[in-house]
What does this fold into?
Amino acid sequence: MKAIYKRELRSYFHSMIGYIFIAFLIAFTGIYFMAYNLNYGYPYFAYVLSGVIFLYLIAIPILTMRSFAEDRKNKTDQLLLTAPVNLFQVVMGKYLAMVTILAVPCVICLIFPLIIKSQGTAYILIDYLSILVFFLLGCVYIAIGMFISSLTESTIIAAIGTFGILVVMYLWSGILDFLPVSAMANAVGVVLILSCVVLAVWQMTKNWIVCAGLEVLVVAGCAIVYVWKTSLFENLLASILGKQDLVDILTGISSNHLLDISGIVLYLSIVAVCIFLTMQMIQKRRWS
Amino acid sequence: MIEVKNLTKKYGSHMAVDHLSFTVEKGQIYGFLGPNGAGKSTTMNIMTGYLGATEGQVLINGHDILKEPEEAKKCIGYLPELPPLYMEMTVEEYLNFAAELKKIPKKEIENQVNAVVRLARLQDVKGRLIHNLSKGYKQRVGLAQAMLGFPEIIILDEPTVGLDPKQIIEIRELIRSLAENHTVILSSHILAEVREVCDYVMIISNGRLVASDTPENLENVMSGTGHIEIEAKGQKDAVKEVLNQIEAVQKTEYKENADGTVAVQIEVKGQEDIRERLFFAFAERKMSLLTLKLNKSTLEEVFLELTQGDAGNFRKAEKEGNGDESNL
It folds into this structure.
């Protein structure tokens, strides 16, 4: 794992992507810091961070696009997979290298609250916590980007795919506002989502009988619940999906000064799921 | 050393490897021979643990490549069809990385890297970016990577592709010297190379092992090789007398024809071409030779016969437009 980690890290700086990523994040954070904190005199650096999340949408896909797609294209994955290291170490080596690159601007960000403090009152704890959450959010995005990169051989497709998903996640709460409130529509929505899951199961197992059974179970279950307690479905999708709003956790700190521990758990679980899925994708390719 | 049992790999409905079984013994050079698309690379990829088999088992020194991958992979050095190189690294950086990846102890890394650099003759390009190297050098860097750590088994997928004739000879010599301490498996579709380098040849066609033997035996045994066929006018005894004079004649098989001629199949000792001597021997006795023909089948013929037999035709029909695959 160490060898892969070191090589990846070095390669990010060989290919300039590492420098550009770090410079890009710091430059724009600096501009926002200057505008919000220095010009307008707002004492919370956390506010700046919640304003610059959109930088991730551009920077993260560029960082993650090469991780597995390029290996696969250049066939260097043959070297990694035939070496006496297990798959988890390969994936973690690459992931940690990207996280390390992300950590550089985050560590530099630690200076900004100190600058505020030197000019007057600063809220160091809140600011540092928000930097931590900002970093963790980046880790989640990197994990997602890495997973997308493992799906394809093309770095361009990996970058655009990751960008698309990150945009959807960024606009999450806005998109949820368009979801219908009525019970009927929500019930249909639940059936549709679960049907997608069944379709995915079919895709993996190719077993018609099991999947047909599951689908019947989904439709019948929803119908029964709907008849039994219609109110349960009211606004169901919006409230469930609303809990998955990743950006909300960071803005929670900057606007309410509240750290949502369940949000941190959500971050870490998404990272774990993405790493697991990445490993599964690589395994799947070996077997198909 | 390596035991491959009943290996099968399916891509959808296409059988890339079809119930392949063989064993590999220590200290020899094995050659996988087969037309394009025969399943050589797939087999090698499965043996090295890069791909999973649909069915079957690969044992490397008793370790199952799927159940104990790390143990098994430690015994193998692998050069895939396309050398797995990181273009943005220098040769030395790359080899150091590969050494670390192969879990070579830190103290030994420098020595090991220097040793393979010497063997693959990379001293001159050690500090250069792999990106800037020519194809031949890239191939040699890949080869150096496979030799790194000097694993017991070295698997090379078409190691001489893209090299110039001088380099090809160098690499062949290198492979032969490796065989003193290692088991080498290489694949190729170049017959001359296999005949020259390998101790043992496995011919693969359509994912099946169609023949496996030493190159000499394949040439001799497969279809009555090294036979001279003659047809002479005269009595069987007279012909026999003539042939007995020639000591290179090892075995004869007579067949009397109704028109007063005798057809003889002659097996010759060694590699000598005795056709001229046969001609003069019969000429001295004033016996007319009607036919004098050398029936020597080369590895090429063996190969073509084996890979373009029924199975080859079947495959051709099956994969229309891809007919090139069973031709060499």
In short: Chain A has a mean pLDDT of 90.
